[in-house]
Amino acid sequence: MDDGGITYARPSKSAYIPVVDLIVSSKDGTLRELALIDTGARHNFIEITLAERLGLPVTGGPFDVSAVGTSFPAYARHLKATFGGTKLAIESGFLAVDMINSGRKYSFILGIAGIENFRLTLNFKRHKYFLDTGAT
């Protein structure tokens, strides 16, 4: 059932939606969330209620964010996390937005700002999506 909230389920095999596990440590322990990789997005985004639950301090804003004909306020937050199953770490700014009410289904959206230092492999045939350092 689609209740309009955040999803914790991986997309079906018939959907070509690149998502990866993002591991976030907080005062309450470790959380594993799904992050949508969006190469069309310049910035990273985090669901505002998750940012508040994690206690991420506001580092800037409010900013007016526009996406697909909609405009909404966002506040910058700083986050450190690792990609699930790897030791690759991301430390970047995220814009905290109300993704539930704006129709987004994931707790995180990784834009170019979050993946620009990694090599991204999208294997749509096998529904596998990888980030690595690109070092040989």
How would you characterize this protein structure?
The protein is mainly beta. The chain has one domain (19-132): Acid Proteases (Cathepsin D, subunit A, domain 1). It has 2 helices and 9 strands; from the N terminus they run βββαββββαββ. The chain has a 6-stranded mixed β-barrel with strand order 1-2-7-3-6-5. A two-stranded antiparallel sheet has the order 8-9. A hairpin with a 2-residue loop joins strand 1 (19-26) and strand 2 (29-37). The chain is globular, with a radius of gyration of 15 Å.
- Name of the CATH homologous superfamily: Acid Proteases
Radius of gyration: 15 Å
Q: Can you identify the CATH class?
A: Mainly Beta
Strand order of the largest sheet: 1-2-7-3-6-5
> What is the share of helical residues?
under 10%
Describe what is shown at a glance.
The chain has 2 helices and 9 strands. With 136 residues, it is mostly beta strands. It has one domain (19-132): Acid Proteases (Cathepsin D, subunit A, domain 1), CATH 2.40.70.10.
